[in-house]
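Predict structure. Input: Neuronal membrane glycoprotein M6-a, 201 residues.
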Amino acid sequence: IDIFKYVIYGVAAAFFVYGILLMVEGFFTTGAIKDLYGDFKITTCGRCVSAWFIMLTYIFMLAWLGVTAFTSLPVYMYFNLWTICRNATVVDGANLCLDLRQYGIVTIGEEKKVCTTSESFVKMCDSNELNMTFHLFIVALAGAGAAVIAMVHYLMVLSANWAYVKDACRMQKYEDIKSKEEQELHDIHSTRSKERLNAYT
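Output follows.
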């Protein structure tokens, strides 16, 4: 349990740092920073950073999908256990059993059933730890699901931001070419005007 606790602390700290990095990435791809430092430099940097964070967020999203799937099994198991405990108090003398083989905890060859007739099952149903654990597993599942939704949303935002920065880079190149052509046309026009003026004089 102590190792698991430190793993949770490490994951929380890592995602806090990752959130700060995403915030910094958002600052470096905004128009204010581009106006301050120049369009082409920041759009090139922003494009590379956005592509990196898209890949990283996609990997984290797949990892959190696995965490969500992993936390859904205890919620399902504890819900069935809680239902059996509730039904055992309603129906007196009923022998209700929970087969652990259906959850993949034990192999098919082993027959491990937890039944309401045993004294340990009655103590477990009456304990506060069962309800507390059930609610903690629900909170863990909800948190993992919220993390997946947040990463899918942020992945969409990052993809749109990357496309915007890429288009801004192309637009900058187009504007540079257009300004060069206009300058060349202006130079040609002024040269011809000077030649006509010289010929007239």
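The chain has one domain: 1-185.
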